[in-house]
Amino acid sequence: MLLLNTVLPGAVHYLRGPSKVRWFFLGMAALIWAAGSYLAFSALSNRVWMFNLVTHPVASMALIIGLLVVSAWYLFTFLDLLRLIRFKQLSSGMKAATIALLVPLLVLTSGSTAYAAYLLNVSRNALVDILPEQQGTGKTFTKPLLTPIDGRYNILMMGGDAGSDRIGRRPDSIMAISVDATTGATLTVSIPRNLQNAPFPDNSPMKAALSNGDGVDGTDGAFNCGDQCIIGNLYSKVNEKYADLYSNVGDPGAQAMMESVSAILGITMQAYVIADMDNFSQLIDLMGGVKINAGNWVPISGEALDNVGGGHLPPKDWIAPGPQTLSGYQALWYARSREWTTDYARNQRQQCIVQAMIQQMNPLTLFTKFTDIVKAGTKIIESDVTTAQIGSFIDLALKSQSQPVKKLILGPPDMTSNVPGQTDFPTYPDFALSRQKVAQLLGKTAPSTTKPSTGAATTPNSNGAAPASTPSSNTPASNPATKPSSTPSTTPTKSSGPTLTKDYLQGLAVAAYNGDLNAKNTLIELMNNNGSCTPG
């Protein structure tokens, strides 16, 4: 009777119960089987349907209620069986055997369905927090479902934080992700945060606002006022000063960033995802770390110095080259470190970390740590993708695991300066060339028969002169004249001298911190390819 109730909850009551309600018990068993069969068949034949069911706020709530009803029905029918089988009249041995069988069956049926309802509710609440249907503060905005543009979804991903030493949020990582809506094939394009003269499409309100010629935040419809107008500052600038231009959206800064990136790349950004990098390490730890093959040493920087140059104390630690399983702390530094190298190397590493995380999604890990991962996600991610559409995006993410990922960086090694003797990509890139390269990678245009320029032409500044590159204090100067003509014989290089070790690199870092220019230039040379990385 206990086993029969496991398969057909209520069937025993149909056979042994009161005649007035026996058909109700049989009907409930049939309904549970019909609903379960329908859900199982639909999920197996169309997993997008299943993802949409469990992620849509209304549909998932209906499923939660259904699971709770099933759980309660199993609990009621099993406990009432004790009355039908006259439990009190059983022998002691039979009582023990009955309880020994009843408890695991209750856990298997009533307990598992109740736990499934709990997990689904955790997921539903998190998705509502991360991907709200309504956008805006004090007003109500409805974002329509996204439709593919030229067969692709285009999402802007920004990573940054609003630390105590910052005014507002500044995206340190800016990456456009274009995904084929059918196959999941992905193109990622990293945009350096120090890019200047960021344009806007003709229909952007920012283009009109920056076309008045006052030069405060830009001229000729571009975000162009010098070092203060790098694209990494656009998000906070718009939210502070131009929010009224975007009264019909929830996050003016994110909308302006999408418009600018659309103009830079020639593809329309449709939605955004903002990741809080300070909390990102927690998510990676919950996933069991991220596996990569690092191409070179990467420093974990020491405390930032409160000086004009923006330097750091000597590194706290180093991430070695070769196969690595990075903890959350290490992965965060691997994606953000730029000491003795350029932002472009950091862009390469960021793309590698994102690709590795996508490829290494482990269903068992997601299931066993589901609650913690979902709760961590609410602290990390913001987006304007609606919950009604997240199911199809989950399906694309799974498809993308088996697809090659194309990558482009608007800077070295993919694009370099065409100015003779200049090795760094200028902060004023050739946007026409950027759009051409993106179009070629997406198969929109045939590659040119003549080899295109590998660099970007500089854009003259207000006085007509070509602006110089503006590397950070930890970035090698673009003019080779500032570098030593030769490396001292006592200084090892990558091809000769002692094998690089953590202790040796740390000694150079300490010497550079104490003002040794040769040590600093040696580190710059040794770190010049530390952006090379592949998923492990």
UniProtKB/TrEMBL annotation:
Coiled coil: none annotated. Residues 170-362 form the Cell envelope-related transcriptional attenuator domain. The keyword Nucleotide-binding does not apply. Residues 445-500 are annotated as: Disordered. It holds the Pfam family LytR_cpsA_psr. InterPro entries: LytR/CpsA/Psr_CW_biosynth, LytR_CpsA_psr. Residues 446-459 have a biased composition (Polar residues). Residues 460-500 have a biased composition (Low complexity). The keyword Transmembrane helix applies. Keywords: Membrane, Transmembrane, Transmembrane helix. The chain crosses the membrane at residues 21-41, 61-85, 97-120. NCBIfam families: lytR_cpsA_psr. PANTHER family: POLYISOPRENYL-TEICHOIC ACID--PEPTIDOGLYCAN TEICHOIC ACID TRANSFERASE TAGU (PTHR33392:SF6). Belongs to the LytR/CpsA/Psr (LCP) family. This is Transcriptional regulator.
